[in-house]
Amino acid sequence: MDVFIRVDASFEIGQGHVMRCLTLASSLKEQGLTSTFICREHPGNLCDFIEGHGYAVNRLPATKLSLSLDEESHHNSWLGATWIEDAAQTTSVIAQASVCPKWLVVDHYALDVLWESSLRALTRRIMVIDDLADRPHDADLLLDQNLFFNMGERYTDLVKANCTQLLGPNYALLRQEFIDARTNLRLRDGLIRRILIFFGGSDPTDETSKALDAIVFLNIPNVVIDIVVGATNPRKESLAKRCAGLPNVLIHNQVNCMGALMANADLSLGAGGSATWERCATGLPSLVISVADNQVSIAEGVDRMKAHHYLGTSSKVTARMLAAAIIDLQKTPVALQEMSKAALTLVDGYGVRRVAASLKDIS
Q1: Which one, of 143, 141, 137, 187, lies nearest residue 159 by Cα?
Q2: 80 near 108, Cβ under 8 Å?
Q3: Taking the model in full, what pTM does it have?
């Protein structure tokens, strides 16, 4: 086995970590490297989804974990075990492989240098995917695909000097569909005929309902609304019932055509997570709400680049605020055109190929 990938999804974690790791695995496959996933069976996991894409999944058992307040504040509750237990379980999985893997890829906010160092002897290289920069890592390669004003300095004291750092949206892990959508992208004229609503796979703060409230308030039957909900969204059935009674509102479940939906839309209402780079790659103007603390800096940074308009945190943004922002953009089509141009400049869609090439070169 060439690559093991330790990553989780759940109702709390969301789908983004798994989705970007699947994108990486697909690109590594093109380089001739085989990937196997190691995932814990949290409620809302994507193990079946990963297997449906042709990858083996080694499943770690779901358990309840009691943590101190300090531990909870560092995402440790997301692991579903102590780091020592998780390391032992992961070690058991990798030890069963017939050969030493070339890479162990780790994408998990609950894991750090202690876990990584304990696995060091079982793999040739370790890659860490992170965007928090809040803990040290034992990594040969670190990827942070997000935009920060001090990108080159964030990990200086958190990784060894010989660790290769791939930093910024130039390395965003985007699927081939976004490259395809960008290649055939139409020139946007700034008019809003179609709006895409997507707040992540699980949408824990239910921003989708908030966005729907804004659409109902606006009463714009001449605008088509596409709503995407993920497989781990606990409200997907109630959202589907609500959408059924609204004119020109289409709901899509766990789609595999997000690139096309973004290319066809004139405006997006979305969260500040990894979908930010998908929207940028397709030049989609966006109104953005952060639904997690780690999204705030990213959303603010992209706003400063004028590649989207950041409204604020989920606790502060209301449906009326969303509606007002849409009205403002309807009045200023030039602003939408400029936003689209800025987004396209920020992300070209080829980041995953750059990352996969780096892994192959280093190994």
Answers
A1: 137
A2: no
A3: 0.91
Among all chains, which residue has been given the structure tokens 């531990």?
71
11 C-beta neighbours (distance < 10 Å), count: 17
Closest of 52, 81, 88 to residue 67, by C-alpha: 81
Q: Spell 200-225 as b/e; 16+ CB within 10 A means b.
A: bbbbbbbbbbbbbebbeebebeebbb
| C-beta of residue 346 within 8 angstroms of C-beta of residue 302 | yes
* Tokens 């895409």 -> residue: 196
Query: Sign of the CA dihedral 148, 149, 153, 154?
Result: negative
SS (H, E, C) 80-122: CCCHHHHHHHHHHHHHCCCCCCCEEEEECCCCCHHHHHHHHHH
**Cα–Cα distance measured from residue 285 to residue 269, given in angstroms and rounded to the nearest whole number:** 9
CB 35 within 8 A of CB 22: no
Which domains does the chain carry?
A: 3-174+349-362 (3.40.50.11190), 177-346 (3.40.50.2000)
- Cβ neighbours around 342 below 10 Å, total: 17
Task: Please report, in tens digits, the pLDDT of each residue of the chain (363 residues total).
Answer: 699 999 999 988 888 899 999 999 999 999 899 999 999 999 989 999 999 999 999 999 987 655 444 444 457 778 989 999 999 999 999 999 888 999 999 999 999 999 999 999 999 999 999 999 999 999 999 999 999 878 889 999 999 999 999 999 999 999 999 999 999 899 999 999 999 999 988 888 999 999 999 999 999 999 999 999 987 788 989 999 999 988 899 999 878 899 999 999 999 999 998 899 999 999 999 999 999 888 999 999 999 999 999 999 999 999 999 999 999 999 999 999 999 999 999 999 999 999 999 998 886
CB atoms inside a 10 Å sphere around CB 339: 25
